[in-house]
């Protein structure tokens, strides 16, 4: 491939990455994962520039290009290693629901990367990974495959974490999140395949496409998810109910549950809004566990209200599920010195009940029943 063609192929991905990175400031909330994603994007841009500089100096005579190639070779290999490790940490954090980047285990998991880095830093003297021959071309050293092997190890483990996490996920939302993350690893694999078959420099372009895939997934999640509880938000609920109404002719049973945390205002007034937010998160987590293995759509309706739409259950089965849900919420430990248990009022409406088929009608019916139950609790 000519130098001009190589520059063109690398120029477009680099510009795309810089634009994406700039856009993350406005579109993504500030978090550890966002920082990792932005760091990955910057590293990829620098690696693309590094590859371009290497190509422009390969085979050129003189001491200057020789020194430059030595330095660029170390940086390029180190950058690849750092990208692979950060990618692994990102997936680990998602798979462990926000706890993957904390603690001593991160340093333990970094041991292969640290060993690879030490070998790279010693390469100018040991020539273990590569060396520059007399005509300024790279030649493999005895440990040439160590860095690619360590990087591939991190990427394969990250893919397996995402793939098996998706298979074991308790909710459709979680399966989708981890499944899309696992699918991102197919892009660079496809790029390498194209590169081998057609002798095209495609691996990096496909890798940039993988980053774009992850970025768009995060962006979509922030548009459709409630920031406090991680459940679907009101906007996504409206969209989902519209989709259900479009398929209302299907015979599958569908149950609408509207839930409200009892005495939630008292929690806020007595213990403050920070505690109130924590209570909502705990209730949401309990709902995820309760409905995780069912065909269920969970959303925060607003304030302390939640909506769950369950498919494929009879009224008798739903009565058991509702009772179990209330018991699970009762069992939530939300503070050592709190004088009362958490409880939740639930209204239920089945599709077709009282001739009602539309989602908004069924939600209104569930709302009426929920408030009757809530009033009975308050009158005690």
From TrEMBL:
Keyword Membrane: yes
Segments crossing the lipid bilayer: 6-24, 36-54, 74-92, 104-125, 145-166, 178-194, 200-218
Organism: Roseburia hominis
PANTHER family: DIGUANYLATE CYCLASE DGCC-RELATED, REGULATORY COMPONENTS OF SENSORY TRANSDUCTION SYSTEM
The entry's keywords: Membrane, Transmembrane, Transmembrane helix
Annotated protein name in UniProt: GGDEF domain-containing protein
Domain of life: Bacteria
GO cellular component term, pick one: plasma membrane
